[in-house]
């Protein structure tokens, strides 16, 4: 029983380490345990994704509904395709919704904002489901382009125009 | 001139010999298959001496470093109307750099020097020789448990440092300077990633634990068995580990971030 | 002396340490079951010979055989097996300072045997009783006097029942009574347990009482050898000087190579 006190203290020490790791992961890094069954994936084509990164948030009206789960380039048309993982509980999103890449704050990180479209079965709209494409997209607003447009008043191709492609 | 080259050669030779000897010591102590029933209490005891007894200094320094970061960060970010990024600043600075590096430096000063002095003392009082003559390998009985204890303790100390540092930043930024609680945490959660930040932090911590413990144990094991030899070895431990940690930090940062 | 009677034989050993030649062609034999004393002035490397026998140091050339096996050519694991058959009583005692006397004595048993706790307790207590230290079993080494810690260390070094016990300066810094106790203990361990003993010392008077064979080392070689009687009656002036502790004699008391006194002034 000589090691008893030491053992208790070392046990506490190890426990503190584990607790610290868990708190850091959950509270600081905001780790959310998602399993695959909880999300469905839809795709959206953009002409320019700016500095959008993997795991960037996807929001409707500022509420997180999912994350960017993949970024790739369609080989034929050379347009970026973004895979969006949306939580299963948000399954009533019209396929007429609009996805646009926006920036939080002036220089903050970029995220995808989805503006819900109307839903009318008679008009042929459906809810988004796994594998669907969001047709209506708005590319990233690139600060440099905006500035040059403003300064030179030129018709540099901007995110706004590219949307019409 | 030839004298100088000869001196340089002798110096290099001596350093290479010392590196070789320390590698041999290292391998002998690591790859000895331990008797688990006997080794476990030894390991627990060493984690107590190396880890548990370093908690106070780690927690206090972590808290103060977090608070200073919160204060400085808040005042600077205020100029750019960007106090909302305080959480990001504090958490990234602490998790990526300050946490592992400062706790490793403190570890070298607190536990590393104590290890060197202890091993040196065992050597000077012939306890290591006595153990050898009793057919007990001091590398396995004395060095190995200390090495593993260092390797286990360092990441835990680092985690504790990071956690209390981040709460220290919150204490100043949120509770005293009036930043919104939600902004502090959400800025942090948006920018800190488990795989990109926390795991590299742990890799750094383990590497620093490895290098500091190794340096401390080798210096103790290889010191001249006199009071003067022990005090020199202790100094060498702190100097060498600090330099090794800072140098290694640069390499790891370049590799991982 | 026949070879089979020797537990340890040292053959033509050369050894130097830090550019200082300590042994030049040293040969000696340790008879089995006897007390062999190794005498010599300070600084002649008496302790070094014990470390060479224990293979903690390796000679530059020459061989040391323990029970017919060349101990320096053994692999590490085999060497450790051989070390279980020898033990050394260090000058300082070298008790583990973080353990009690009991734990110190139990340490070799716990490391090398699978005896149950109760049996270990009994064996340790018997050994402590043999050196008169049973009452001090629960003390820490820092609480012991010099003589007590040496006795405790002695109990520890005989606990594994080794064939060879090496004593490194057992009498240094002890008062006359303790010296007497230690001399008696060493003699008893040799007589009653039949263990081969090697005693390195420069306490001539004490050791000549109990030794069976004596080597005198000086200048890296054997200066004189023989039974205590032969040694005391030796006509070699340097042996005589050492045994009788004469101030004046062929063995200079000043360090060799020092400049002429007058010139220095």
Can you give a write-up of this model?
The complex is a heterotrimer of chains A (165), B (257) and C (265). Chain A is of the alpha/beta class. Chain A has helices spanning 4-28, 143-152, 159-162; strands at 39-45, 57-60, 63-74, 79-87, 98-103, 110-115, 133-134, 136-138. In chain A, strand 2 and strand 3 (63-74) form a beta hairpin. Residues 161-165 of chain A have low confidence and may be disordered. Chain B has one domain (38-256). The longest helix of chain B has 39 residues, at 86-124. Chain B starts with a helix and ends with a helix. Chain C is an alpha/beta fold and 265 residues long. In chain C, the strands form two sheets. Chain C has a six-stranded mixed β-sheet, with helices on both faces. Chain C starts with 5 loop residues before the first strand and ends with a helix. Chains in contact: A-B, B-C. The interface between B and C is medium-sized, with 15 and 25 residues.
Short structural summary:
The complex is a heterotrimer of chains A (165), B (257) and C (265). In chain A, 24% of the residues lie in helices and 30% in strands. Chain A is built from 3 helices and 8 strands.
Multimer state: heterotrimer
Question: How many distinct beta strands of chain A?
Answer: 8
Compute the separation of the termini of chain C in Å: 53 Å
Count of all domains of chain A: 2
The share of residues in helices of chain A is 10-25%
Low-confidence stretches of chain A: 161-165
Largest sheet of chain A: 8 strands, mixed
Give the largest interface pair and sizes.
A-B, 24 and 30 residues
Strand content of chain C: 15-25%
Helix tally of chain C?
A: 10
Shape of chain C: globular
Structure class of chain C: alpha/beta
Order of helices and strands of chain A: HEEEEEEEEHH
């Amino acid at each position: 029983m000589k090691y008893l006190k030491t053992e208790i203290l070392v046990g506490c020490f190890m426990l503190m380490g584990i607790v610290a790791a868990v708190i850091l992961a959950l509270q600081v890094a905001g780790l959310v345990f998602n399993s695959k069954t909880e999300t469905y994936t839809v795709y959206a084509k953009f002409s320019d994704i700016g500095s959008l990164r993997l795991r960037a948030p996807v929001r409707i009206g500022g509420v997180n509904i999912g994350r960017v789960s993949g970024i790739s380039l369609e080989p034929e048309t050379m347009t970026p395709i973004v895979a969006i993982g949306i939580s299963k509980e948000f399954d009533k999103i019209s396929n007429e919704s609009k996805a646009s890449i926006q920036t939080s704050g002036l220089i903050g990180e970029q995220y995808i904002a989805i503006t819900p479209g109307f839903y009318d079965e008679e008009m042929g709209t459906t809810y988004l489901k796994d594998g669907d494409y969001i047709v209506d997209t708005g590319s990233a607003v690139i600060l440099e382009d905006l500035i040059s447009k403003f300064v030179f008043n030129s018709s540099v191709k901007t995110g706004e125009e590219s949307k019409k492609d | 001139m030839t004298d100088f080259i000869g001196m340089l050669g002798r110096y290099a030779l001596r350093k290479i010999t010392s590196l070789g000897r320390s590698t041999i010591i290292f391998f002998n102590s690591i790859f000895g298959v331990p008797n688990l029933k006997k080794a476990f209490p030894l390991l627990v005891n060493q984690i107590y001496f190396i880890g548990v007894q370093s908690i106070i200094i780690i927690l206090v320094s972590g808290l103060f470093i977090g608070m200073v970061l919160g204060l400085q960060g808040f005042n600077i970010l205020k100029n750019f109307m960007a106090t909302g990024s305080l959480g990001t600043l504090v958490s990234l600075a602490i998790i990526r750099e300050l946490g592992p590096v400062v706790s490793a430096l403190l570890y070298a000063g607190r536990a590393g020097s104590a290890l060197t002095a202890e091993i040196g003392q065992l050597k000077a009082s012939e306890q290591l020789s006595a153990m050898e003559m009793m057919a007990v390998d001091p590398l396995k009985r004395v060095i190995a448990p200390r090495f593993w204890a260092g390797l286990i303790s360092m990441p835990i100390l680092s985690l504790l440092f990071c956690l209390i540092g981040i709460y220290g930043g919150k204490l100043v930024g949120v509770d005293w300077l009036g930043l919104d609680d939600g902004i502090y945490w959400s800025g942090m959660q948006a920018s800190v990633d488990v795989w990109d930040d926390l795991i590299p932090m742990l890799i750094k911590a383990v590497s620093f634990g490895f290098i500091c413990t190794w340096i401390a144990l080798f210096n103790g094991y290889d010191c001249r068995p006199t009071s003067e030899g022990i005090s020199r070895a202790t100094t060498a431990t702190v100097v060498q580990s600090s330099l090794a940690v800072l140098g290694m930090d640069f390499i790891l940062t370049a590799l991982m971030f | 002396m026949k070879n089979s009677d020797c537990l340890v034989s040292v053959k033509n050993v050369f050894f130097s340490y830090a550019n200082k030649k300590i042994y030049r062609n040293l040969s000696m034999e340790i008879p089995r079951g006897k007390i062999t004393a190794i005498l010599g002035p300070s600084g002649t490397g008496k302790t070094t010979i014990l470390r060479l026998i224990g293979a903690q140091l390796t000679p530059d050339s020459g061989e040391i055989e323990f029970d017919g096996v060349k101990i320096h050519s053994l692999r590490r694991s085999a060497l450790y097996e051989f070390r279980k058959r020898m033990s050394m009583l260090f000058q300082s005692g070298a008790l583990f300072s973080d353990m009690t006397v009991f734990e110190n004595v139990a340490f070799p048993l716990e490391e090398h045997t699978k005896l149950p706790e109760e049996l270990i307790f009994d064996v340790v207590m018997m050994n402590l009783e043999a050196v008169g230290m049973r009452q001090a079993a629960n003390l820490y080494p820092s609480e012991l006097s010099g003589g007590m810690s040496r006795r405790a260390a002695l109990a520890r070094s005989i606990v594994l029942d080794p064939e060879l016990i090496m004593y490194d300066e057992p009498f240094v810094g002890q008062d006359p009574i303790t010296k007497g106790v230690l001399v008696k203990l060493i003699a008893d361990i040799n007589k009653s347990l039949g263990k081969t003993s090697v005693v390195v010392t420069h306490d001539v008077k004490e050791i000549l009482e109990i030794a069976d064979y004596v080597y005198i080392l000086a200048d890296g070689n054997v200066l004189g050898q023989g039974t205590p009687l032969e040694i005391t009656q030796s006509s070699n002036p340097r042996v005589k000087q050492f045994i009788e502790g004469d101030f004046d004699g062929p063995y200079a008391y000043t360090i060799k190579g020092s400049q002429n006194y007058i010139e220095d002034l």
